[in-house]
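Could you help me review a protein record that somebody else here produced? Here is the record exactly as it was handed to me:
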Amino acid sequence: MKPSKAQEIHAVLREQIVSGLLAPGRRIVQENIAAEFSVSRIPAREALHLLAAEGLITIEPDVGARVAPLNPEELREVYLMREALEPITVAASVPFLTAEDLERLSELVDEGDALAAEGDIAGYLRMDAEFHDLMSMRSGMTRIQREIHRLKEANRQFRGVYSLLPASLPQSNIEHRNLVEACERRAAEDAADLHRVHIRRTRLTLDNHPEWLQTAGAPGSQRIDATQ
């Protein structure tokens, strides 16, 4: 069954929010959404109410819709769990990575350099997801990997906000390159330690700047056509 216009708009805006491209506090203007998607205000309004029901936006009389703030306590809990679990799967995976796996990891790092230079946040986040999935895919630890996947979904919005910072993508990819070097040496524990620090840096940066979780004022934050 074909989704309604409201559902289509909801899906696009939801992805922009959970990926961080629409940052916390960003105003979403109903009229702009209608114009952007070439629809009347009715499906635009319905899409906003769907997002509000999920807790992704707030709608206030005489104020309108804004992307909801993020919870710093959730940030800490989710990232601490990732710091504990992901290095386990990385360490278990490294000895079994194939030559093709290592080649693909190197290709992804090269792609990451280009995407970071272009400021392509959405493209970089897609590359980042593939990179980290590949890093741990040979672990054989399916139960832990399922939990990690759930945690990654929970922290996508935090990761997206962090990616708006101008220096975040180049720094992230330097760390990716170091991870690949450890994998090529088959240094499983080194890779696990580097991965732990890689996750921790994001948590500590956001933890030290709780204002970025409340408003769209993080340096370098993007403007989306459907917003103010």
